[in-house]
């Protein structure tokens, strides 16, 4: 990953949305880029505000449980063996190459301001229109619904499938990752299971091994969902053994 | 729910929490009990938002609180506030759990325990906690739809930016910049300083 790319990762890092490998690369970068270090601190503090906004009352007995537990847990020393993995990398005081610092300041200076904001809005409006074709807004609405519940299962070949259901929206999204391509001339078809009778919920894109699909139609009284391999264009009823069958989250 | 309320006043309560944490670092169990009271609500809220499952959320929230005790000597107030430190840890642990394979299997076997996030409006809460949430909501509304959806999926659902890109049918580069733009916008709206 280039240095220019790394500067843009402050937000994803603060939200813990990077893979382990990317996180490590970014933490090395933090050691040599002061603007990113400052921005990361601010964006982490901003993320914490998102956390403060979702406070929930605990089970009263939890207090006693935790206070009992700490009596058996030994505290670490201040410079102890296990410095936090974030701080450890950032504080390692590596020599900063002048080139890296210059690139860094330039990147930081190029961002922000009203002009950028106008540009973002315009760009996002275009992006929205493009995404509408793929139902991305509906997918996001299900995934971010306050009552969204999910269930994950393993599929053949190390793939995973997650179904997310929102009762209030009466819709479901199926997210697959790492699926093998269907055989030539075939597609993956999704189904709702209405007490043993299968109702088509649309097709997956055969060209993409990882995708999120808004399942067609209302969830209604469906108790489960399934995935089958069908001839191109899909079938009225499943014609093959399901690759996956799972109960919808209760 | 006094304990939940304390955190809502974090601007004024924060110096106390810092001081409490300093005492926790010296092994003061009473100071830890006060820290617990101040942060348990948001810690549980963050973990529950990401994990959804009630039993797992409680387990992870407890682990986080015990980790606060264990690692308090490492807390450095010059790197951010005590609340940030604790909530960052809580979010990281929740995300670690949601991404672990064991968790996926456990969720499948514990479907009966999956239940909805409580309706916040049903929960008796202090004015401060409600104000905090309203302010965050108001600021979230100043984001573009894409920024808001991306931040929501990453923070409250624990998705990686690659998963966010899949879910929102956006290029990876766009998601990276939208997460950053969105948080910057939020930072400015909330007046966050580090
Ligand atoms: Zn940088």
TrEMBL record, chain A:
It comes from the Bacteria. Keywords: Cell membrane, Membrane, Transcription, Transcription regulation, Transmembrane, Transmembrane helix. Gene3D superfamilies: Anti-sigma factor, zinc-finger domain (1.10.10.1320). GO terms for cellular component: plasma membrane. It is found in: Cell membrane; Membrane. Residues 228-250 are annotated as: Disordered. Signal peptide: none annotated. GO terms for molecular function: sigma factor antagonist activity. InterPro entries: Anti-sigma-K/W_factor, Anti_sigma_zinc_sf, RskA_C, RskA_N. The keyword Membrane applies. Residues 104-242 form the Anti-sigma K factor RskA C-terminal domain. It is a single-pass membrane protein. Residues 6-39 form the Anti-sigma-K factor RskA N-terminal domain. Its main location: membrane. One of its GO terms (biological process) is regulation of translation. This is Regulator of SigK. It comes from Streptomyces dioscori. The lineage of its organism: Bacteria, Bacillati, Actinomycetota, Actinomycetes, Kitasatosporales.
């Amino acid at each position: 990953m280039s240095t220019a790319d790394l500067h843009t990762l402050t937000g994803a890092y603060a939200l813990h949305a990077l893979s382990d490998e990317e996180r490590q690369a970014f933490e090395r970068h933090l050691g040599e880029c002061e603007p990113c270090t400052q921005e990361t601190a601010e964006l982490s503090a901003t993320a914490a505000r998102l956390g403060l906004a979702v406070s929930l009352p605990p089970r009263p007995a939890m207090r006693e449980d935790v206070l009992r537990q700490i009596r058996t847990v030994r505290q670490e020393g201040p410079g102890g063996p296990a410095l936090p993995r974030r701080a450890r990398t950032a504080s390692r005081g590596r020599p900063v190459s002048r080139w890296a610092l210059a690139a860094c300041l330039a990147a930081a200076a190029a961002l922000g301001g009203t002009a950028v904001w106008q540009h973002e809005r315009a760009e996002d409006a275009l992006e929205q229109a493009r995404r509408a074709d793929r139902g991305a807004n509906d997918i996001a609405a299900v995934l971010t619904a306050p009552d969204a519940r999910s269930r994950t299962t393993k599929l053949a070949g190390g793939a995973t499938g997650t179904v997310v259901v929102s009762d209030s929206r009466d819709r479901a999204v199926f997210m697959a990752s790492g699926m093998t391509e269907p055989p030539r001339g075939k597609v993956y078809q999704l189904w709702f299971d209405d007490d043993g009778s299968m109702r088509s919920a649309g097709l997956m894109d055969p060209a993409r091994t990882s995708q999120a699909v808004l399942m067609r139609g209302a969830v209604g009284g469906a108790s489960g969902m399934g995935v089958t391999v069908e001839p191109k264009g899909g079938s009225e009823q499943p014609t093959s053994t399901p690759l996956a069958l799972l109960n919808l989250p209760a | 729910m006094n304990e939940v309320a304390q955190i809502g006043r974090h601007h004024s309560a924060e110096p106390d929490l810092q001081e409490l944490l300093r005492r926790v670092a010296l092994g003061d169990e009473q100071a830890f009990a006060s820290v617990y009271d101040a942060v348990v609500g948001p810690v549980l809220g963050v973990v529950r938002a990401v994990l959804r499952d009630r039993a797992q959320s409680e387990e992870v929230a407890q682990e986080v609180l015990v980790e606060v005790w264990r690692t308090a000597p490492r807390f450095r107030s010059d790197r951010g506030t005590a609340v940030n430190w604790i909530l960052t840890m809580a979010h990281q642990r929740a995300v670690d759990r949601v991404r672990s394979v064991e968790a996926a299997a456990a969720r499948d076997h514990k479907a009966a325990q999956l239940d909805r996030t409580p309706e916040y409006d049903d929960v008796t809460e202090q004015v401060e906690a409600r104000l905090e949430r309203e302010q965050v909501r108001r600021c979230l509304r100043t984001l573009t739809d894409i920024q808001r959806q991306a931040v929501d999926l990453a923070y409250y659902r624990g998705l990686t930016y690659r998963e966010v890109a899949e879910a929102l049918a956006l290029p990876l580069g766009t998601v990276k910049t939208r997460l950053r733009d969105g948080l910057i916008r939020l930072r400015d709206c909330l007046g966050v300083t580090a």
